[in-house]
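Two proteins follow. First one:
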Amino acid sequence: MAVSTRLDLRQSQTLVMTPQLQQAIKLLQLSNVELGECVDQELERNPLLERSEGEETPVPGPAATEARVNGEDRLLDPVAGPAGDEAPLDVNPTDQYGDDAAEPGYGGPGGASMTSRGSSGGQGFDDEDGSLERTLACPTTLREHLRAQIQVDLTDPREAIIGGYLVEQLDEAGYLRIDRDALADTLGCARALVDRIIVKLQRMDPPGVFAADLKECLALQLADCNRLDPAMAALLENLDLVARRDNAALMRRCGVEAQDLADMLAELRTLNPKPGIIFDTELPPPVVPDVLVRQAADGGWHVELNSETLPRLLVNKRYYTRVSGSVRNRGEKDYLAERFSSANWLVKSLDQRARTILRVAREIVRQQDSFLVYGIQHLQPLVLRDIAEAVEMHESTISRVTNNKYMATPCGVFEFKYFFTSGLSSTVGGDMISAEAVRHRISTLIDEEPAEDVLSDDRLVEILRGEGIDIARRTVAKYREALRIPSSVQRRRDKKLFATA
């Protein structure tokens, strides 16, 4: 077979992931917090981008989105609201004191000049910035709280230095998880001195700090309230049985009756397994919904984007025109053109992101109308493919849109993915039943069960099938375990124990 070269022409289709397309996909899956951080980074990198503060009257453009209000399609701007609704954005800040500036006593002729510092607008007389935030006390951290006690309780300078070092070794829960021999070697002192200082530190507030493990932490708290008797000490030695709810074994190990054990367990639940958390807890940021849903006058639903989560960006074309006329070389010209193209593409991508989110949200609301009206028991089975087919998008796009996006409804604030659940078949035919609604029904039945008639998994299957839900026993057990509900045997033990208490 002879080897030769030849020239062929072939035609094929390929998807090229340009940097602009990658950016658009990245923006689509970001949450509103991550989007704000991304926009801030772009504002630092691109001199042609600037943030719009809403001072000018907005016009429908890249930042505008569509919504259906009372059956009519209208443009919705993040700042101005639905088209045609004029907001009083042109208020003159100098008019906040009224029209009495010319009267005596208000800075007019013959009157004393009144500044904002001396006004009743919340400004102090001795502070340039009289904001309320500056008057709030900063929360005390765990380490600051302990250092203040060390200055009083540890009068020996050497012990105070070692105590300050031990404070820095605490974890966020207040535990001292460090080998004491290694600690003594690091500090260059005797192990007995370290143990003596730790004993003193363990007497400080809050009770339970400087413990090595959970058992010691609970023992310190019980000793602080003079409740560490032999029975409670035996209970702490068998925390594994407490976790397994083996009450019969606990009564034998502790040598107490059922009522006494119930009291001991109730007291154990009042203790704090992480005493340091009460000082250093950082509250999670509140969930800011991306979409707002409210009932319309015609009985439908009004869906709109939350303007607070939409970044307001503008491309400064005036600055671009001025700078482009003074470029000196090809490199500067290419850089300016690239920045201008990047700025335009970012604004366009943000507009496309907003429109896509709103489009998907409207379809979710349409398909989950019964949930918004009647509650979780009427949540309909829904998968990504159903929304993708309705809005004519790919499933991967729907997945990105529903990631870390939240919707505020009359029933509460829900993540987009909450509305996507699998379905169970009905015994009487008809539509499928949402798995989330079935889990809610199982939880309700168990909460309402009487102490003398605890529902087993088989009994739950019978009840659910009587309500038209075709479900297997293993599915009931799986849903119950996902809800962290113990078995019927364990629930019966617990209810009998607390009934005798």
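Second one, unrelated to the first:
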Amino acid sequence: MSGSTHKLSILEKVGYAFGDASANFVWRGALAYLAIFYTDTLGLNAVHVAVLILWVRLTDGVTDIIMGMIADRTETRFGKFRPWIMWSAPALALFMILCFTTPDLGYTGKLIWAYVTYIGLTLAYTINNVPYSALMGVMTPSVEERGSLSGYRFAGAFAGGLLVSVGTPYLVEFFGKGDESLGYQYTMYVFASLIVIFCTVTYFTTQERVTPPKVERPPFSTEILNILFNLTILCLPLLGAVIFLQFQTLISGVFFAATFAVTFFGARYIMNSPEEGRTSTQQELIDLLQNKPWLILLCVGFIFMIYNSVRYAVIAYYFTYFADDPLLTAKYFGALLMVSFVTALAVPYLNRFITKKNLFILSFALGSILNCVIYFFEPDQITEIFIVGCLAEIFAAIMPVLYFSMLGDTADYSQWKHGRRPTGLIYSAGSFVQKAGGGFATAIVLLVLASYGYDADIESTIEASIPGMRLLMSWVPAAFGVVGLAVMFIYPLTNDKMAQIERELAA
């Protein structure tokens, strides 16, 4: 099978898209309401919620890497990745319901409940979505077809997010009859059922075709210990950032700076270790640390996730308090996700005229400019907010489509350069930085609101927090967009380079 001739059927592309539609009931849909659910319905403090989300997202990132390793080592007659999508669907559905359940407990009990159920949700999401993402890398060896498949995937993702984002406020009102706690729980019953159905569709309509090279591996327990040791060294800066955001003291700032030094020298130690003494896990990590396109793409993924997630996390607050109309939240989400759905399908066609790298740069630049414009609108300029927001969303929606397609390109690069293809590890790390970026974004929103004194039970603090909400809808994401633009300039995999790699791998 030649990488340049293999074509996926429309049925298989649509079936694959159903998997991300189900995942985005959680990721782009329910989690968009989780922060405001925690602060306004469950009654948790904004700073406590920020810390909760940060800690859970970072620990979840470690499980992403471990899940990628497990998926890479899974051998069944149904494939490496497909079975996990089916096996994990019931757990994902269950924890989505539990996350939006309000127990009759005191404040501490509710905070513990939030930790337990949110950890359960993110773990179930990891078990489901890491193999799902890696599945894209083995369904076809064609770079062009992966780009098309990524477009279908995110069309499904945005459709799932659209259904949840638009439907949630109306279903909460319908089921709750004034009781938000009950309304949220019954609403999640509906979406949980759809998660199981959609994952089943993906399982039965997709195939795995690309077989990675065989690699001799030590016992899995040994590999887990190796990966945990090495990941602890590599992920220290993220831990330092969380501690600094939580305490914001000079000591925490010094600790944050020290983590970078430990990671720098630790990475050098790993890469300079004797080749004959390396385990397969260490060798895969070294391959990735030497995979410049992958490292740059991880940075870009972290940045664009903050860029996108800050905008989404503040929308419910922005329209509830700045525009004084909570139902505009659902309408705005709906408008953005309809734009995203169409954009995702259009990206493969845009790539025929603009390279992935240049399209990414253009998206960061124009999206950031449009976000800045939103700052200058007043509460009665709803039409203008919707128009500019939807224009900005065109460029925001392009980013994840390109990102996951380009992760597949870096897997090709790894196999071409090193003769090894840790697809699950490549995609799980990509998922990790997205989750970390999303966690930091939500924490940024909540910490900015907390800095303005936000308390949902005190009207005066809400009014005082509105300037912060306006900044979070405009200048804050735009600043991250400018940083992402600068990093994307040094990404080295051009169309010509990928064509060479594809030809040589096919041969």
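SUMMARY FIELD: The longest helix spans residues 382-418. DSSP finds 18 helices and no strands in the chain.
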